[in-house]
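This protein record is not my work; I was only asked to verify it. Take the sequence as given and treat only the tokens as open to question. I have pasted the whole thing underneath without changing anything:
***
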Amino acid sequence: MKIDYSLIKAEKNDFEFIKSAKLNTIFDYAKNISANEKEKIINYVKKFTEKYLNDYKIIVSKNVKCGVLLVREFEKGMLLDEIYLLENYRGIGIGSDIIKKEISKYDNIFLFVYKDNFRAVSLYTKLGFVIYEDKGERYLMLHKNKIDN
């Protein structure tokens, strides 16, 4: 069954939604962090979201904001920097469809994923991503559409 969704350019009034979606996911998978580290993450997310607000897309399904997407330049390709879906919208095909569309646009696309997010790691592997670098709690994964000579 195809789930209908659309990507809408983020506006200033989407700031809190984006920040909340990002922080909820980070704290779901970032384990064993101190209160000080948590505060640093919150401050970083606020500054990062403000900086890239005009580059975000809001994922909307049936007139409900259900997630966020951020794709930006990175190294020798693009970074699927953020794709966050609210819990009720996970596992129904929206994320996979978005990722497949993004993969088709670029020769090299990277993403970060928390190692403990087994469901996401499995999905990305099925979609053709490989672990490019181990970053501690996270992997940097790469999908290549073009083989380098």
Q: What stands out?
A: Residues 6-144 form a domain with the Aminopeptidase fold (CATH 3.40.630.30).
